[in-house]
Amino acid sequence: MGRARKKKKVLIKDIAYQRIQLLFSFAENEARQSNLEWSNRYAYLARKIGMKYRIRLPPELKRRICKQCNSYLLPGKTSRVRLKNNNVTVTCLNCGNQKRYPYKN
Ligand SMILES: [Zn+2]
């Protein structure tokens, strides 16, 4: 019985994770159409689900949300991406916050 319960918990996390990915794809869609209010809303919901179920967002999704103002970051639209000395600098165009991480091939 203990095992079954554990299995169920994993399943819930799985569904939550799928929902997060879906929300991020919605966010991207809305950002592309300049519906920034909606894209930010979807990003917020995705983060909230992640926190609720204690799911660590993969780095590629984490980078899509501004740490400072929680805006959804779409390169070329709501964020500016620059490559410099093997580092990627992402600037949030909403608040100007910059984030740097190493660039990997
Ligand atoms: Zn920001």
Amount of beta strand: 15-25%
Which blocks of ≥5 consecutive residues have pLDDT under 50? none
* Overall body shape: globular
Q: State the share of residues found in helices, binned by percent.
A: 40-55%
Tell how many strands the DSSP assignment holds: 3
Which sequence of strands runs across the widest sheet? Answer: 1-2-3
Task: Please report the number of helical segments.
Answer: 3
Alpha-beta content class: alpha+beta
SSE pattern, N- to C-terminal: HHHEEE
Biggest sheet descriptor: 3 strands, antiparallel
Distance between the termini: 46 Å
Average predicted confidence as pLDDT: 91
What ligand species are in this complex? zinc ion
Overall radius of gyration: 16 Å
Which oligomeric form is depicted? single chain
Overall structural domain count: 1
